[in-house]
Amino acid sequence: MGRNSVSNQMTTYTNYKYNPMKKYLFVHNILFWSMFPLGVFPYIVGGVLIGAGVGHIYITTGLHATQSSFFSTTLSYFSKRPYFQQKQYLDSRGWRLTFALGVIFGALIYTITLSPEGFFTTSVQWWRLALGGFLVGFGTRLSKGCTSGHGISGLGSLSTTSLYAVITFLAVGILTAMIVQALGVIP
Amino acid sequence: MRIKHLFVFTGGLLFGFGLAYGGMSKQEIVLSFLQLKDLGLLLLLGASAFVTALVINLVPKVLKGPFLGGKFKKRRRTLNKRTIIGAVIFGVGWGLSGQCPGSAIASLGVGNIPVLIGIASMFLGAYIMGRIFA
């Protein structure tokens, strides 16, 4: 066994020829992995699980499980304004609340079972959370969709409207994050 | 009716577990994506949209309707100015804070208490939007 592997190595060594393609692939590989410093595995598995959750709800109930509508439908419990009292909000507010609870518990289960570092607290400043949150709430409701509504369910439904929305908020999000970073605000 | 909530809840569990597994419940990871330091969240978006696309487009051809009855409906949105202006405003908030609705809600399960400020602000933003444009 040992002899064989040594002679195999020798053959590979003597047969080695300089291959410019190998150098190209090596550089290419480094470029690829530098875009994914934490690897690709958690992102792909996370994405498949999210899609499985949305798909599971669609197959069993026919509902499109999206996130940002949750804010408007939950406000219907508190505001008597006609906008919040519209039928589709009253009809969906119950299951949207259930869905949000499921999302919280799902993240909790991950944190106490598989998460390597356990519970997490962000170091993003409170004023960014407040101002950013306000714009997120306002913008997603005006646009009728967010990263999950336009991004997952919208793109999943092959909707061009959602495609335009996703391209827009991705481009603006990247631009804003770059500007904020350039102004020296960390993280 | 109760059964429906059970299925929605278990779907939510998968959704929240996946969000946390993919790191999106951490604003720092979202910001590193938007600063183009780690493009992993693009894979998360692609994988989740791909799985959803398979289910939404193929399952209605095999099954007559959802398990709990009713019919499969398409999610309809019409493109107008609000779609794009809203997406721009959302993009600014997302890039500033690293929060989006789903990831902020999942953040609570990760113990990320400061994000309660963000969620309260999202409610306020949604309320003001409803007041102005109702």
Please give a structural write-up.
The complex is a heterodimer of chains A (187) and B (134). Helix content of chain A is 72%, strand content 0%. Chain A is mainly alpha-helical. In chain A, α4 packs across α5 and α7 runs antiparallel to α8. The radius of gyration of chain A is 24 Å and the shape is globular. The model of chain A has no long low-confidence stretch (mean pLDDT 91). Chain B has 134 residues and is an all-alpha fold. Helices cover 72% and strands 0% of the residues of chain B. The two termini of chain B are 30 Å apart. Classes of the chains: A mainly alpha (187), B mainly alpha (134). Chains A and B meet through α3, α4, α5, α6 and α7 of A and α1, α2, α3, α4 and α5 of B.
Short account of what is shown:
The complex is a heterodimer of chains A (187) and B (134). Helices cover 72% and strands 0% of the residues of chain A.
Name the assembly state.
heterodimer
Radius of gyration of chain A: 24 Å
- The percentage of residues in β strands of chain B lies in under 5%
Q: Report the average pLDDT across residues of chain A.
A: 91
**Overall geometry of chain A:** globular
Q: How far from one another are the termini of chain A?
A: 54 Å
Secondary structure class of chain B reads mainly alpha
What's the total helix number of chain A? 8
Shape of chain B: globular
Cα distance, first to last residue of chain B?
A: 30 Å
Mean pLDDT, all residues of chain B:
95
Residue runs with pLDDT of under 50 for 5 or more positions of chain B: none
Detail the topology: elements first, then pairings.
The complex is a heterodimer of chains A (187) and B (134).
Chain A: H1 2-15, H2 20-34, H3 41-61, H4 69-75, H5 87-113, H6 126-143, H7 147-156, H8 160-182
Helix pairs in contact in A: 4-5, 7-8
Chain B: H1 2-21, H2 27-34, H3 40-62, H4 81-97, H5 101-109, H6 115-133
Helix pairs in contact in B: 1-5, 5-6
